[in-house]
Protein 1
Amino acid sequence: MRFDPAPAYIEQLHSLIDLKPIKDAGLKVMVDPMWGNGAGWFPHLLGGGTTQILEIHNQRNPIFPEMSRPEPIPPNVDAGLAATREHSADVLIITDGDADRVGVGDENGEFIDQLRVYALLAYYLLEVRGERGPIVKTLSTTNMLNKLGKLYNVPVYDVGVGFKYVAPKMLETHAMIGGEESGGYAFHGHVPERDGILAGLYMLDMMIRLHKKPSELLDLLFGKIGAHYYDRIDTRFEGDRQSREKMILNVSPKTIGGLAVTGLETTDGFKFSLEDGGWLLIRFSGTEPIIRVYTETTHRERVQDILRDGLRIVGL
């Protein structure tokens, strides 16, 4: 016996968002489902109006041509960004292989990293839809959410990296939104799990309601909480993890990337707080000898210096 969940899922989407304004907005939307499960959903949901939906990589292909893996981050998104520029699209919506994560490109074919997307989605719920409720975020995602929490007087909870920590905290706190650095976001009134299709629809709805293109949405967000810059390095290491962890604790740096260190949190990895409100996070992969070094800062020119100092702290 076969079960088709699509009708119930579509009914649920209609209960969460009015799709007609998006259909009738006359947008040109580029969609890259990355050869995976997201193929066909946006044309099906948004077809029949003046908005055009253009899809690439919309056939199932487990080889995932033009990308190393179906993860919505550079360089895997480069083909979608190029197609956005080629077709002069207003926005690029990218879903990963199983469509539970989302990536976004702006009208210029420039990638909007997932930390900024998370802040935009939270701003959309708070400002555009007028919703209120806690925000749940992993340690590796943006402090822009903390600033939005203060601005709109909603609590923000930090948890370990992974949705296995996000979802229970969302249920415990009746959160409005929960998310992580990889581009997975969950929403109140829906399943407490990542949904890249709904997140993409919310981004489009935000564009429609505020009459702004993606780059203009970022300008609006940064006008409220300031610009933030993010990057990450994954690198292999030799030797045992324990000695590297002791090395990190023994270094005890006073500054990182020229910014004073104001605190260290070791809930999940080693997260150094910096004087500008930014951070450096060092985490070890649980499955392979890889160290992940992440940073977010309000100083664009310091991003690479912070990451280099992070590598030095672990002896790389």
Protein 2
Amino acid sequence: MDTKPDYDLLYETAESQAGYFTVQQANQHGFSWERLSTNVKNGRFQRLFRGIYRLINFPSSPHEDMFIAWLRTAPHSVISHESALSLYELSDVLPGEVHLIIPPNASRRRPGLRLHTNSLKPEEITSRQGLPVTTAVRTIADAAISGLAEEMVVQAIQEALQRGLTTREELMAQAAHQKGRAKTIINKIVVAENPI
């Protein structure tokens, strides 16, 4: 590669991703495989997963597994379901896999990840701790639909309301677009005069 590596541009890219970057992003800023390897050996970069690195001067994230999962499926993937609940700290759920929503036409071949194909509206996506994530109200509905234990969904609703991450009106609007379990649980908590 003839392009001179641009550390400043790579830093800007990584900074917006809590210090993480992909080999493709590094290549776009002039870093060859050899240059990446040299920076790993010199202690400037850390290789975390095949094709995924972190700038050493950034502290590792407590959600490093989510950053790695997101970068493996980026740019159109979004942290979702139980993983989003964990990111929001909305329940005691401890997901065994990282859940992401990917576009319907995206490859589902990503071992170790729980991929959900779905179309998201822009207003259903936000950012939290540098990661794209479904909004709290969308996260609650997805968790309920996927079969998360009802007490965990109830806890998530109560926490989200208490912390101002969503409103009763938003939850009711979400329930109106749902069927089955999600609609039942949300209505049970939000519409009832005395929520659990």
Protein 3
Amino acid sequence: MSSREFAGPSGTTDSTCSPQVSVVVLSHERVDLLRRTLRSVFAQRGVDYDVIVVDNASSDGSAEMVKNEFPRARLIALEQNLAIQGRNIGFRAATGGVVLSLDNDIELPDPELLLRLHERFARAPALGALTLKICETATGSDYAPAHWWHPLPRLAFQDLEFQTDHLNEAAVAFRSQALREAGYYYESLFWGGEEWDLSLGLLEGGWELRYYPEPVLHLAPRGLLNHQADPRHALLIRNRCWIALRRLPLGAALAFTLPRLALWSVRALRHGYVGHYLRGLGGLLAVLPTVWRERRPIGPEAFRRMRAIQGQRPERLLD
């Protein structure tokens, strides 16, 4: 896609115009971490921006804290936890040409991050998304291993920019035009795997996705779920297969789904979450009619691009 036009504002500081960047923070509980996130966002300089906080029915006073301590933020307080639908509500309310999506436990250590994001999008009209370098607070410099699902080795490439087919919803910037065209996150998933579905939608639209090594701090690191008996396995098993069957060509969807169901069954037996596995499998069977009704496989060109990204040769990129 070489003919894209940059749809963002021209950089004016006139308050009657749209901001250059909109920051959308999705929040549920964790009021103290949300406070740290917003302090780092409001410390940004060099670019016009606005801030939208979507609170997913927190019970810890998060909404009140935002009202009292960050009056410049636009608060959207939901009456129930809508999970990823909350992100879409924030995206639709955003007016910036670039939208930075954050979890409520992400701190921006560099006060000019928003400026560089805006400039990076302005230089590349085909750029649809930049997924950021999510660092653990213990080191402040190494990408958190639990978040790394990119096609290249983490240690060799965590400080380099490259094409990717993965987005991390905890800290990712979008061109707002690309978000609209891709249809935002697929809300039926509720939680888990939604970033993969959106990345496929962006690739289908001809947009470029890049890993952008600007560090942000993850204030509440999580470990890998593979070896944990966590209820979230049920949603992850259901959703990853759901996305594959919904968005990939049929042969590729089956090649993805069947081996993974077998692998997850072995892990469930070994690590004691057979019940979660069975709930995930049952959930997948329950949504199959919806999967086939809403099936929108990516086209041959997008599939070829995805395979090319996944098959990048590290040694060539490091030459």
Protein 4
Amino acid sequence: MTQEEVHISSYFSHAVVLVLLLTLTTISVLVTGWHLGALTVAVALVIASIKAGTVITYFMHMKFESLFLKLMVAGVFLLYALVIIITFIDYLLR
């Protein structure tokens, strides 16, 4: 059997992540009030991706995982970005 390593996060890092997520949530709410046209959705998606990456990194302890698993998660984010970009290109060329 292999021993599992226990990763204990500090309260300070949780507080920093909380402030970051609350700040990004506030920014995403404020962006909906700005009239940026098609960029409004793009900015909201970028902010949501940053928030998802933060949650995956700190609350799902991805920063302590192996390189292979990190690459797999990065591949999923890349695929997600590719689908969104293709969707925007299709929308703009109609």
